Amino acid sequence: MSLDVLNQIETVFSTFSKGQKYIARYIMEHYDKAAFMTASKLGSIVGVSESTVVRFASELGYDGYPQLQHALQEMVRSKLTSVQRIEVSTNMLGQGNILEKVCNADIEKIHKTLSEISRKDFDAAVNAIVKAHKVYIIGVRSAATLANFIGFYFNLILDNAILIHMASDSELFEQILRVDENDVVIGISFPRYSTRTVKAMKYASSRGADVISITDSKLSPLYAYSKYNLLARSDMVSFLDSLVAPLSLINALIVAVGMKRQDQVYRTFAELERIWEEYDVYEKPGTEE
């Protein structure tokens, strides 16, 4: 419903009360600001009560104002520039207790991710990865950190994981040229969404691969090209998006795949421990004198 919120407001505008029309006009003209306001703040700006704002959300078919607010946020997050993000987050966070506010927000995002994610898609994605001929992993810009993390561990527990490195569109397609229906392609992207990742997902889908998206919502451009969608909350924090919930989801994905290959994982790490010991890869704990 998110992208259609403005159209929906316009469609039923004539049915609103006088106070609700004030709210509607403000949202249509300043939806980028309204999306990050509390019901009380929005009511104060347009000159109506908080309860009027709550009733307005109900009139649009939402369970409450937070649901309407989230729909607006999903619509605008991918459109905000870094400067606009800083301006919005300054109003949201204020100046004090930044550590507590950000950490508590991350905890909340993990809880929401856990309650909203499709267990069916998660389990199916795990099985697809285990059975795949090749597993391609794609993520750029801030999502590259997540892609590298998956790639590191999948290279330890699988023998067919391929981390895609992208410097240009041509290099992207050169690396996934032969992807087919026996393969899995994992694409990772959060607002602002990478056009390169979207192009890769579209190509992989057209080739019949099992496409897995790790993204934030059904409005993500990755969603349309994915067979399995693993959604994790990554709400805006200043000029960056929090990747705590996506990383927690990825941890679960890696562990679940590892459990499916438990015997192989055991042998791999037993051999690695021998190599690490032989070549002094890790610092040995000192002995107390």
Condensed summary:
By secondary structure, this protein is an alpha/beta fold. 58% of the residues lie in helices and 9% in strands.
Question: N-to-C SSE series?
Answer: HHHHHHHHEHEHEHEEEEHH
Largest sheet entry: 5 strands, parallel
Give the overall shape, derived from the CA principal axes.
elongated
The CATH class of the largest domain is: Alpha Beta
Alpha-carbon Rg, integer? 23 Å
Give the count of helical stretches. 13
- How far from one another are the termini? 67 Å
Strand order of the largest sheet: 2-1-3-4-5
Give the total of domains. 2
Q: Based on the structure given, which CATH architecture of the largest domain is correct?
A: 3-Layer(aba) Sandwich
Low-confidence stretches: none
Structure description:
- The chain is an alpha/beta fold and 289 residues long.
- The chain folds into two domains: 76 residues, Winged helix-like DNA-binding domain superfamily/Winged helix DNA-binding domain (Arc Repressor Mutant, subunit A, Orthogonal Bundle); 161 residues, Rossmann fold, CATH 3.40.50.10490.
- Helix 2 packs across helix 4 and helix 8 crosses helix 12.
- The relative contact order is 0.11.
- The model has no long low-confidence stretch (mean pLDDT 87).
